[in-house]
Amino acid sequence: xxxxxEEEKCQSCPSKGTGIFCDLKDSELDEVSxxxxxxxxxxxxxxxxxGNHPFGIYCINSxxxxxxxxxxxxxxxxxxxxxxxxxxxxxxxxxxxxxSATATALEDTKVCFIDKKFILKVIEEKPSVxxxxxxxxxxxxxxxxxxxxxxHQKNVRERLAxxxxxxxxxxxxxxxxxxxxxxxxLTREEMATMIGTxxxxxxxxxxxxxxxxLIRQAGKALIVVDEERLIEWANLxx
Length: 238
What we know:
Elements: H1 26-35, E1 36-41, E2 46-48, E3 56-62, E4 65-70, E5 76-82, E6 87-88, H2 90-95, E7 102-105, E8 109-115, H3 116-125, H4 127-153, H5 156-171, E9 172-174, E10 180-182, H6 188-195, H7 199-211, E11 215-218, E12 221-224, H8 227-233
Antiparallel strand pairs: 1-8, 2-7, 3-6, 3-8, 4-5, 4-7, 9-10, 10-12, 11-12
Helix pairs in contact: 3-4, 5-8, 6-7
């Protein structure tokens, strides 16, 4: 059996509590640890590319990864941003389809790869893992449906407000004054593709949000100041 460094064991993963293996016993996690390969991806490096054949799944240890789709016209759009505890490649794994998107590190990111044969064995033998994978697939589908609805029913201002709220939920770090720092490195171009607008339009609305006191900026990071008003601007029913 391959010897695994202590820091690379699943038990040491900072995202263990939110991953698909969170309910496994230590002895079972040891088996997963032996069968996985841990890699660090630098900002801009790709984990897999749209159209390639899937060989397993990727479990994010730490960091952020953007999942993008490229259309026939060559235009790239961000489908979602995955973070620690999320898995990638699971949908293609079960359908035997080629990857329908490309995964790229937004920053230095630590990721564990588990080959198809072993993960399918674990899913078959461990109901808790199956349920967590189903949960993540269901959440992905719900997020995709919500995004599609937002594109058809909301204007750019509402979509930006909704995006900021979603980033606050997934990457918000609460500050002493009650505001939330969005701890994710997204360029303005990337944010613009996420809400389906031009970069110039996004910048204009960000300035409007800052003037209205909904958000503020610290360096390149955005801070959500007034969540209640953002909810109103996003036309959401929380």
